[in-house]
Each structure stands twice: as structure tokens, then as C-alpha cells.
Amino acid sequence: MNSIGGYRLFGALLLSLLLIGCASQEKMTDATGNLGREKRTSPAKIYVEMGMAYMRDGQSAVAMQKLKKAIAVDDDFPEAHNVIAILYEQLGESDLAGVHYDRAVELDGRDPYIRNARGSYYCRRGRFEAAAQEFQQALSNPLYPTPWVAMTNAGLCVERAGERAEAEDFYRQALTANPQYPTALFQMAECSLQQQKDLSARAYLERYHSELQPSAASLWLGVQIEKRLEDRRKAAEYKGRLLREFPDAPEIQMLYEAERRQ
């Protein structure tokens, strides 16, 4: 099966999943994993939390030290392997990331956070069918508290595979689950602009900006939307903020190139 066919199949599977509930329930098995049980205590937990805090602060070297310590004190703690995999991937060590993602799934294959993370990893490596299976596994857990994250990641992945219509379906499903989820709002704004649904694009972008401070990417998207709508004042407002707040962003070059083409 090619990647496109695999994603069309996945879209049908996910739609069925969302409509009738977890497929594993039909087999009378418990898909909740550790989310349905009291989590065991582990001395590694504090090191994982410290590692995540250092990652948020951009201190990758210290974060790696803490996460390696977590694994040293408890090699069977799945969260430690999942987080260090994310860090390894951020550092460009994709093969090592894969080893730890696999170990995390081996330890807790029903953890939707782990499955979602490995799905995104597979997608970035172009393994689209494997990614689809991971997102499906994440969404099969009925206790997953943030399914819209996996839905949006699935959409990003199918869009990367060239299936924009299927991607839009995933973004809409994510917004049905959480109407305020910023990533899905931004992606729907982009999809709407591509389809020349300019008023819808504006509405999605405004909803996005009600949830998050504007980024260089969102301001550039705003410039494009407002130019299409011929609202020069709003386009100039977005442009001004982009130039002032993100003078070194790649979107500045995109802005200049677009203006040269006009």
C-alpha cells in the first residue's frame, strides 16, 4: 500500500473511531492503559520534570543530563524515554530518538502521549503509514484528555503527504473536540486561504489571535488574507507589526518577495 492509500484508509478508520468510539471496545479489551490505573511512583519522575523544565528554557545540555539520570535510576519509566526521545530529535539525533521512542512504546504502548509523539516522529521521517497507525493508537484510548492534539498532528502529517482535503477533515475534527486549539485554527486559516475562502480565513486567524499572541507566521498570513480581501488598512497593520516585532524572521523575506512580484 502506498502512503496516499494508507492515509485514505486511516481517514476512514479515524472517522469510524470518532463516531462509534474506541474500536478496541468491540473486542472487550481495556484500551485505557496506565491512564486507567493509579500510576506507580518512580524516582525518575523528578528528573524528567527537571529535564522538561530545562528544555522549555532552551538549556538542552542540562536537560539531557537530567533525562539521562532519570533513565539511570529507572530504565523502566516510559515517560523518561519519551521525553529524551523528543530531546534527541530536537538535537538532530534521529536514530537515538527512535530507539527511545520504541522503548517508551514497549513499556507503555497504550499511552496516547507516547503514541502521538512517535507518530509525529514517524511523519517527520516520511513514514506516513506508520505515523497513521500511531495516531490511531493514541486516539483509541478513551481517556486521552487531549485528542485534538493527535487529530491535528494527523492532519499536519497527511498534508505533508499531499492530502490537503483529508488534512482539513482532521483539523475540523480537532476543532470540534476543542474549538480553541490554536494549531488547528491556524491550519484552517491557511487551508481557507488556499481555497480562496478569504472571509473564513480571516475568521480562523482572528480566533487564533484570540488564543495566542501573533507570531511572525500568523502576521504574514494576516497580510496575505487582508490583501486578498482588499482591506489595505488591516494589511498594513499586520505588515507593520511583522516588521517591528519580528525583523529577522524568514517571513520578512517572503513579504519583500511578494511585494516585488506585485
Mean pLDDT: 90
Helical proportion? Answer: over 70%
Distance N to C terminus: 44 Å
CATH top level assignment of one domain: Mainly Alpha
Q: What value does the Rg take, in angstroms?
A: 21 Å
Spell the H/E element sequence.
Answer: HHHHHHHHHHHHHHH
| Sheet having the most strands | none
Low-confidence sequence ranges: 1-7, 17-28
Q: Considering the protein shown, what is the CATH homologous superfamily of one domain?
A: Tetratricopeptide repeat domain
The assigned CATH architecture of one domain is Alpha Horseshoe
CATH names the topology of one domain as: Serine Threonine Protein Phosphatase 5, Tetratricopeptide repeat
Overall form: globular
- Helices, by number, come to 15
Strand content: under 5%
Number of strands: 0
Structural class: mainly alpha
What topology does this entry show?
Layout: H1 3-20, H2 23-26, H3 44-56, H4 60-73, H5 78-90, H6 94-107, H7 112-124, H8 128-139, H9 147-160, H10 164-177, H11 182-194, H12 198-211, H13 216-228, H14 232-245, H15 250-261
Helix pairs in contact: 1-8, 3-4, 3-5, 4-5, 5-6, 5-7, 6-7, 7-8, 7-9, 8-9, 9-10, 10-11, 11-12, 11-13, 12-13, 13-14
Question: Would you write up a description of this structure?
Answer:
The structure is a single chain. The protein is built from 15 helices and no strands. It has 262 residues and is an all-alpha fold. It has a domain of 84 residues: Alpha Horseshoe (Serine Threonine Protein Phosphatase 5, Tetratricopeptide repeat), CATH 1.25.40. The N terminus is likely disordered.
